[in-house]
Amino acid sequence: MNDANERTPRRYSPDEVSRIIKRAFRPGQEDAISHQDLLEIARELGVEPDRLDEAIEQELAGRDLEEAREKWLRHRRSSFKGHLWSFFIVIIALLLINIFAGGGWWFQWPLLGWGIGLAFHFRSAFFPDERQIERGARRMLAKSRRGRY
Length: 149
Hints:
The protein has 6 helices and no strands. By secondary structure, the chain is mostly helical. It has one domain (3-145).
């Protein structure tokens, strides 16, 4: 090793450490490390098995929550698209009824009312706040753990 490298301590972020270990551990198979390999690495680094198990549980819980967040967002956006199609079909039908039935122009009122509701649905589906996403994801995760989703 170079003397300059030994005198200059390098520092790596946790993400960099993770990527470096994955690349160096099994060349050509950077996408996954077996549980046994992870245990061996932890043992060599002096990590207690209980601490490793705790860290694994936290990682899996975080991954499950992130997957639930993504699933919740997909569900909200899909729901909005269904709402949008219903809106177009019904509004077009009401427009045609209004045109052919005569009796004054009333078509704009359902268009306006439903359009306002649709705008709020659009906002909540495509621009939800973090609290809304978190709450929805946790509900979805709880349902899936109970076997209902």
